[in-house]
Amino acid sequence: MLEFNNQVVIVTGAGSPKGIGRTIANTFARQGATVIVADINEAGIQDTCDFINGQGHSGKADGKVVNVTDKASVDELVKYIMEKYGRIDVLVNNAGISQKVTVEDMTVDDMKRIFSVNMFGLFQITQACVAEMKKAKYGRVVSLSSVSAKRGGGVFGGAHYSASKAGVLGFSKNLAREVAADGITVNCVAPGLINTEIWKSLPADLVKMVIDGIPAGRPGETQEVADTIVFLASKEASYITGEDIDINGGSHMD
To answer: What is the pTM of this model?
Structure first.
């Protein structure tokens, strides 16, 4: 068991029951962390916090509304955490949006909307949290990229999504070099097809086509992604930085 007692962990985009964020937050709480469920969806935040706090974990969940595309909102989140808890040990950049559209039909506004959350929003909250981590000479940043960033698209997103997730990889590697001497590691995970509500809604013919392209013969589980993130955020992973871990059942291999 990896121990996160007394650590404060932010998980963005953890207010939705349909994605990976809730499982990530719950897994950190199970390891003893105080998890800040940060999302734009206030009702979703409450649902996630109620779910986690009802599990009897040694850790707990607290929630705060944040719009990662708004610097004032991000600054307010960090201020709230520092005033209440006095530390930020881990940031998990899970918040993201997608859109299935071809380049031919894509608009500049489509591109801006995807990048505003997936890249610029990630930048703003990472910048604010790393500033506090540097003061403490300790921190972990784990960001979710995607197999789409590496293989050139996937089932659920367009080229702008792939480009934004590729940007996450480049940004994270550069940041890892900048802050390594401050005791901060910066890593990414790149999930492939994961068994979320979106996957469950696909038609049977598309399901078969996608599964045929995965050597493992199945979608990944949200818990498998969460477990990898928790390890990268642990003290045990202190000598791993600037890495991106593929979680895709073999559908893409570097």
So the answer is: 0.96
